[in-house]
Request: fold
Amino acid sequence: MRGLFLVLGIFFLASTSLFSQTKIWKVTDGKMYFKSETEIETIQGDGGRVTGTLDLSTKKILIEIGLFDLKTPNRLQTSHMHDNYLETPLFPIAKFEGTVDSIKESGEVKAKGVLDIHGKKKDNFVITGNLEKKEDTFEQLSYFTVILPDFGIQIPSLVFLKLNKNIQVKVKLIWKPE
Amino acid sequence: MKVQLPIWFFVLLFVGSVSVQSQTVYGSTFMGSSLIFMPTTEEVGKKNLVFRFNHRFGNAKSGLKDFYGLDEGSNTQLALDYGITDKWMVGIARTSFYKTTELRTKYTLLSEGTFPFQVSFFGVAGQENSDQSISYTTYTQSWTGNTTIDTKLNNDLNEYQLTTTDKRSYLASLLISRKITDRISLQISPMYVHRNFTTFRISNDRTGVDIGGRIKITKRVDLTFESIFTPKRDYSGTNYATEELKTDYTSITQYTSDQINTGLANRSLTLADIIYRNIYLDTPVKYNTIPVAIGVDIETGGHVFQFFVSNSRAIAHTQLLRGGEYDFFKKEYCLGFNILRQFSLDTPKEVW
Reply:
């Protein structure tokens, strides 16, 4: 009987210590905002279904953004963005795959890796994020710029006054340790 | 005129594509919220305003002499459409033909994501504001001897002035569209028009099927086509076959091919006679043909330009079922364009 308790006790101890050690963070909620500013027109939009994982042991980070529900207030602009620029039917997902420099619970974190948009990959792309702890989740805010021609998205000469080739992107992510 | 065949062809193609194609096709079905004649199932979008500027020039038959119809007066429409919600749009349009003002609304009933087709209801109420009168068939002569009074009396006795209610008409239509492949979209829209007043032999109620589509050529250029199949048009004769042969002058008709063949064979006709009647006096018979148009849609950042060749100059939706003015087989057609500009009236949320 004593032996059984001992065995059970050891088992429980082992299991709790095993599960308390989190290995992976997952994105439970996320949103993406983007902005193009020129002297004539400012185009703003939001959307995106964000999924992502962060492996604490290997420091590998993977973020995927579904581009289908990306939209601007102007309906025609939205459909042209999907049809002519992002070509969403062909390239429905934007992906970032890289490694983070350190694991923190708050403060600035840097990640370096490959950004894949519109079927084109860009190496050594650096994204910095600001982490903030909120109860059992972590909120991350990142700002970066995507240069459209880098990803094979050309702006027609008639439109260049209205659309900036440098698109400012803001990503808000809620991480949850698992 | 056999109009059923092409309709069934497109309906079969349309329905057949549902069974053939299993995976969903993404992206927009049409470039703008309107095709050449009828609106598309594309939604205007919440708090979005669409401004349209539509033009149909005159008969291009005489070619460069009249600069392909641009010298003639054109039929113009200015229109505004506003999206109250994503699915519901209301709009107003003013057309220069018959000084027509139209109120219109479009509502998305079923979306293609959840249903094989995108289905919208489209309704229009039209009011013509131009002075229109109909002469009675029997002429009553006034007899007072005073010319001023006589002229006035003759007008009043022999002409019926259409009232405001007479010049009102309504359209109801179901727009049914499907994105068949990434490049090809089709839309079939059964439609019904009621006119409060029509002349003798022309019924107040009219039905038709509008078939339109687009074929994407490049990212920013679409080839578009549209036709309105309607069994009856507003031609003034009794029979489409004899109406085809009408000329500028009453009682002089064109020769049929049979008449030409036999006439030339037994030398009762000369070539000059045929040329005079069939070519020189040849004139379009108004509202005799089925409206057909072929064109291109070009997108340039926020605008959509639509250029096309059509045999109908009507733009007002309630006037479409009257039929086309020109006949492609007589080399008659008109050039036209639609320009569409979309604005968002939504105050952008500052997200930065």
